[in-house]
Amino acid sequence: MTTAATPEESLVSGALTGTGLPPGRWVGPMWVSDGPLADPGRYRACIAEFDRSALWPVLIPHDPRFAAGGEDWLTDRGRLAPAVHRVGDVDVSATLARWWDPFCCPNGTGCLRPYGARFPGLARKSQLRVDPFAEAGNTGSILARRAPYRLGLVPVERPADVPAALGWTGMIKSTDEVAAVSAVLRSWEDRFGAVLVVLGFDELELSVAAPPRGQGRALVLAAEHRAFSVRSFSGQPGTLREYADGLVHRRHWRFAWD
Questions:
Q1: Which of 90, 110, 236, 241 is the most buried (most CB within 10 A)?
Q2: Sign of torsion, CA 20 26 28 29?
Q3: What pTM was computed for the model?
Q4: How far, in Å, are 46, 158, 253 from residue 40 at the CA level?
């Protein structure tokens, strides 16, 4: 009787052989390529194999903040404890309401109109018309053509669980609840076909298969984005309503913490 192979063993034994993986190594719970992807199509190929490999691919951007000192945040920065087992217990609406900060505006809550001090709740689900994994493969391949990214492979059941599985600390200046971060990503996967494609030191980027098609839903979603990452919202010009305009039909979301 043979035992089931671990994700590590599956990778070594060729579960992803057809993708033409570059040289790499395991860094904690994630396999990472030694250098940037030379062939952007390999990202799409890894997504196509996800159902079989159980290894979700993420693009890891070059971060000049670490280059000067010869550091690598994957090995030279700490991690939280893995928390995938807690993700399903998180109330996403209550968590975002707790993270909603009404005091970021220079004068009162004007930048949050039509909302104010109270989080408005979750946006309704969008109708899915495109396969989220196919959209993620296309988005990731395009990004990998435009800039150097290393490839990361994380053993998870779904893309949203990557931060919790890694004990990712990119949001640590705002919260140490990495299970809650993955819970929000799960909710966006379910409602908008939003799939994690880029994982940086303190940034996440998602491919979006079913973005809001109207202003009303986009406005509620904008409030979710703002609660999730105040830094991302405050880096945009204008009000919440103007931020929402940019979410209509938008298939690429980016969040940053610092």
A1: 90
A2: positive
A3: 0.91
A4: 11, 22, 20
